[in-house]
Amino acid sequence: GIIGPNGAGKSSLLRILTGISAPTSGHIQFEGSLRSILELGVGFSPDLTGRENVYYNGRLWGYTGRELLSATDRIFEFARLSDYADWPLGAYSTGMQMRLGFALATFERSDLLLIDEALAVGDAAFQQRCIERFSEFRRAGSLILIVSHDLPLLQAVSDRILLLDRGKAKFLGEPAEAISRYMELIASSSRDETGSKFSELKESEYRLELLDANAQARRHFVSGEQAELSVELSPKEELHDLTVGIHITSSHGIRVFGVNSRQLLGEGIRIQGSRQLRFRLTLNLGPGLYTIGLSVHRGLSHATDCYLWEDSVIEFEVETGMDAPFEGTSFLAPRLMIV
């Protein structure tokens, strides 16, 4: 996977790898077949039927006429468009066209597959089919490079993630670590780019505590127990229009929950001197280790005027209760009735 802020060079990198653009220095060496999906549906004609578009565009992709004739039904079946194969493409919705473009581009495995923001095609069921196809290709030896802003989906399909910023590689490694560094990069960039006269909160200016229902500090909970996150802020200067957020991440790097004060209150917070915020939660989480992160910023997002972004301030553990065993990442308080 490849991630980074706008202008980081993600799409430019894929264009260089496909040969569309030339690098300013260095060289690229690769042996094997290459296919790129830089913009789904490019070259499709609204006046032709879906079947005709598959044939003519497939030839442009380098497929032979015989390959296309034998694979057309499979392409439409994968895209869930078999009933619309002979409709004019102009009658297709945008989502239908994107699904057809993806199915055509990937019906045959290539050694290197480059994808730019093409994972947003279709609904959740079709996205799952795309992920399964990627897994097939990987097992067969394909190298797949994907650019996307959909971080959870990218984390699900990637072995490693490359973080780019202003044309330079900042990190290459585990997806969870790459995404954490990306969020920190967004926070630090907000301070650099806005030119605001404020500074990041220091450790002495904030405190986060995890408490149980009796207001006692704890690090071990049973799924379904009540907990409270206490956030104490003591900035050296008055802050206004603030948003204070918390996020919980599993040991696998999956963001399982996040909420902030603006979502709960509908407005920003003013802090002068010291102020405490308390988030009351029901820990309906599956068994495992989790970390709690904290963010403090102005406005809706930490992408602008971010005073603080910390991913792992507190670590805690959840276990299942003896009277309510279950599996999975969430406890939904099930009740069974037999009628």
What's this entry about, in short?
By secondary structure, the protein is α/β, with parallel strands linked by helices.
Describe the overall structure.
It is a single chain. Helix content is 28%, strand content 29%. With 339 residues, it is of the alpha/beta class. The chain folds into two domains: 2-173, P-loop containing nucleotide triphosphate hydrolases (Rossmann fold, 3-Layer(aba) Sandwich); 197-319, abc- transporter (atp binding component) like domain (Coagulation Factor XIII, Chain A, domain 1), CATH 2.70.50. Strands 8, 10, 11, 12, 14 and 15 form a six-stranded mixed sheet that branches. A three-stranded mixed sheet has the order 1-5-6. A hairpin with a 7-residue loop joins strand 14 and strand 15. Helix 2 crosses helix 3. The longest helix has 20 residues, at 175-194. The chain is globular. The mean pLDDT is 88.
